[in-house]
Write a structure and sequence with these properties.
The chain is an alpha/beta fold and 420 residues long. It has 16 helices and 14 strands. The strands form three sheets. A six-stranded mixed β-sheet has the order 2-3-1-4-5-6, with helices on one face. Strands 8-7-9-10 form a four-stranded parallel β-sheet, with helices on both faces. Strands 12-11-13-14 form a four-stranded parallel β-sheet, sandwiched between helices. The radius of gyration is 24 Å and the shape is globular. The protein starts with 11 loop residues before the first strand and ends in a 10-residue tail after the last helix.
Length: 420
């Protein structure tokens, strides 16, 4: 990924929902001004959620998600509908598309009702698009439709995606309701102009070839924003790097979590220390909750099930952190026989009740809404959740150090023990 590109996880995610042949794919092509989605008169052309990251004025960087029809039928159709509804878990905005002349009838579809209920429960901003206005001889008044649909009039837009009519107004409407994302810096609120930051980035067999991973890129960019002095080294060069920084100002060391034990042993107590993963936990998750979740590692018993979940779908190396290193570390720390389940990418169990603990990656490839959904699902199920960095720091006995020294910034509230 280019350092100049906006990561998919940092873009506004817009889900397009509706029945088959409502014109969802045609609407996406009209909004983008490109033939991005396959269009056909055959019902069910879109069989899986399809994502496209792009720039749309005046919206800025977005991810558009074209979903299968909510009126799909049969055993396979039910699975497609389920995939469509799951897409809401990563949406910042939802657009529900109806054919104008069948909108009132389509609203009675149980899957449409389930969609609307989920949108309202999750408080996702949404817009109703009544499409194919070119196919009816009389366009009813929006007020009449608003009453019939039970939807506020200002949420309803009339379009002919095929003819390009009403698209400008729709784009302006989407831009108007885009939620203002909270400004949660990765590291720039912990440092100032001229401060020194050391980034420890191990390069081993599991490191990606020819690049550094997304959290490392984002920390570099955020630190540059405030004019900090950035020093980057491998874990094998850290001791030499530290010795060279005799005049360092307000030094902060950020390490890859896999090197936590080594880096902590070489770093004097007075120097602030944390990890990319811990910074990601507060940036995109709930650090306070994940700190408490890490403590469950001391309470594991024989037969407990632990879910290790990654947001990305990278090729797993021979010494992969999620499937190899973490289980070894947990086994050595807990000294019990734990059963592991591994998921990656969009996979995340809907039933979390079998698990005693969830250990999640830093979620750099997931957007904040999707990570929030996973954390909220764990909370609802009463299952503790932590992430790689907090878990590794806890098992090495340095979590208090890595959080407490920065607690005023990393945690908005005092950390208190939670009961599970």
């Amino acid at each position: 990924m280019s350092l100049n590109a906006t990561p998919s996880s940092e873009r506004t995610h817009i889900g397009i929902f509706g029945n088959r042949n409502a014109g969802k794919s045609t609407l996406i092509n009209a909004i983008t001004g490109q033939d991005l989605a396959v269009v056909s008169n055959v019902a069910g052309t879109t069989t899986d959620p399809v994502k496209k990251a792009m720039e749309i004025l005046p919206l800025g960087p977005v991810v558009l998600i074209d979903t299968p029809g909510l009126d799909d039928e049969g055993e396979l159709g039910e699975l497609r509908v389920e995939k469509s509804l799951q897409t809401l878990n990563s949406c910042d905005i939802a657009i529900i598309v109806f054919e104008l002349d069948s909108a009132l009838m389509d609203m009675s579809n149980p899957n449409i009702k389930a969609l609307m209920s989920k949108i309202k429960d999750k408080q996702i901003p949404y817009i109703i698009v009544l499409n194919k206005t070119d196919e009816v001889t009389l366009v009813p008044l929006k007020g009449h439709l608003s009453t019939g649909l039970g939807i506020e009039e200002d949420k309803i837009y009339l379009t002919s995606a095929l003819a390009g009519e009403g698209i400008h107004e729709l784009k302006e409407g989407i831009a108007h309701i885009i939620p203002k994302k909270k400004e949660s810096p990765l590291v720039s609120d912990l440092i100032g102009r001229g401060d020194d930051v050391v980034l420890v980035i191990p390069i081993d067999e599991s490191a990606p070839k020819g690049r550094i991973i997304l959290p490392q890129q984002q920390v570099i960019r955020d630190a540059l924003e405030v004019g900090a002095k950035i020093h980057i080294c491998k874990d094998t060069e850290y001791e030499m790097m530290l010795q060279s920084l005799t005049d360092a100002k307000n030094l902060l060391v950020i390490t890859d979590s896999q090197a936590f034990k080594k880096i902590a042993s070489l770093t004097p107590e007075e120097i602030r220390l944390t990890s990319f993963s811990i910074l990601m936990a507060r940036y995109k998750g709930d650090l306070e909750w994940q700190v408490e979740g890490a403590k469950v590692l001391s309470e594991l018993r024989d037969g407990d099930k632990v879910l290790i979940s990654e947001g990305c779908t990278h090729h797993r190396q021979c010494n992969d952190i999620g499937t190899v290193k973490l289980p070894k570390w947990v086994d050595a720390f807990s000294k019990v026989d734990v059963e592991y389940t591994f998921t990656s990418g969009g996979e995340f169990p809907t039933d979390l009740s079998p698990y005693r603990l969830i250990i999640h990656c830093g979620a750099c490839t997931l957007n904040a809404e999707q990570m929030k959904h996973r954390i909220d699902s764990a909370k609802t199920a009463g299952v503790p959740i932590t992430n790689y960095g907090t878990a590794i720091a806890y098992m090495n006995g340095i979590l208090d150090r890595c959080v407490a020294q920065l607690k005023g910034k990393l945690c908005q509230q005092k950390i208190t023990q939670k009961k599970y």
